[in-house]
Amino acid sequence: MPPDTRMFRSPPLTFPNIPALDGLRAVAACLVLIHHGSYGRLPGGWIGVDLFFALSGYLITGILAAELSRTGRIRFGRFYIRRVLRLLPALIATVLLAGLLWPITPFKSPTPSWLEAAAAALFYVANLVPAESLGSLSHCWSLAIEEHFYLLWPPILAVAWRHGGLRLAIVLAVSGMAAVAREIALKFQENI
After folding, report:
1. First and final CA of the chain: distance in angstroms?
2. What CA–CA distance (Å, rounded) separates 117 from 134?
3. Whether the Cβ atoms of residue 141 and residue 108 lie closer than 8 Å to each other
4. Distance between CA 177 and CA 97 in Å, rounded?
5. pLDDT score, position 13
6. In this predicted structure, what is the pLDDT of residue 11?
7. Where are the transmembrane segments (predicted)?
8. Taking burial as the number of CB atoms within 10 A of a residue's CB, which of 2, 90, 104, 113 is the most buried?
9. Using an 8 Å Cβ cutoff, are 99 and 114 in contact?
10. Across residues 53-77, what is the average pLDDT?
11. Could you tell me which of 106, 173, 35 has the C-alpha nearest to residue 98?
12. At 56, is the pLDDT very low, low, confident or very high (cuts 50, 70, 90)?
């Protein structure tokens, strides 16, 4: 009879719903809306974007880590379908509304078509296109970055978990954040 190893296993991680974090994400989104609504006269938009990204990364990592802890794997299909169902309907509505308003908006660029801007937004590559060519859909750059994170982070986390457990996953996350912070700092210095 094999020995009972249950007492040596750590309990599965759980990731509770924390309403305060949802509230902070709402505050972050409001900062962005206020910044855009004031046509840039009121600062705070970048703080809102950074806060939203940080909270989203934390929440997604917590959910994935809890699933890894419970099951030893990530159900990628389920994860990606949930992201699509959560974000794509609102994006489609936004793109359609922008298309209706495209002829009268003061923010459109003279060169691209609405279809080009819509395709960049809907395929989550708006961050790879010059913002001025996206017209009223230029704000979709941040959603594209978030989608790239959703696409890349779960497999990286799963591999790190499989080969080094939670510690390696944390080291990768912190290293990635440090690399991004360094790039942001360099870009900021270029603009001074």
Report:
1. 70
2. 5
3. no
4. 35
5. 59
6. 54
7. 45-66, 87-105, 160-181
8. 113
9. yes
10. 88
11. 106
12. confident
For the cut 70, the answer to whether the pLDDT of residue 173 exceeds it is yes
Q: Which tokens sit at 46?
A: 């970048």
- Where b means 16+ CB within 10 Å and e means fewer, 122-142 reads bebebbebeeebbbbbbbbbb
Residue with tokens 């309403």: 19
Q: What is the pLDDT confidence band of residue 79, given thresholds at 50, 70 and 90?
A: very high
Q: Which two tokens stand for residue 124?
A: 């989550």
Rounded to the nearest angstrom, the gap between the alpha carbon of residue 119 and the centroid of all alpha carbons in its chain is 19
Q: Three-state secondary structure along the chain?
A: CCCCCHHHCCCCCCCCCCHHHHHHHHHHHHHHHHHHHCCCCCCCHHHHHHHHHHHHHHHHHHHHHHHHHHHCCCCHHHHHHHHHHHHHHHHHHHHHHHHHHHHHCCCCCCCCCHHHHHHHHHCCCHHHCCHHHCHHHCCHHHHHHHHHHHHHHHHHHHHHHHHHHHHHHHHHHHHHHHHHHHHHHHHHHHCC
State the pLDDT at residue 8. Answer: 36
Q: Please report, as a single letter, which amino acid is at residue 87.
A: L
Q: For residues 175 and 189, give the distance between their C-alpha atoms in angstroms, rounded to a whole number.
A: 21
pTM of the prediction? Answer: 0.74
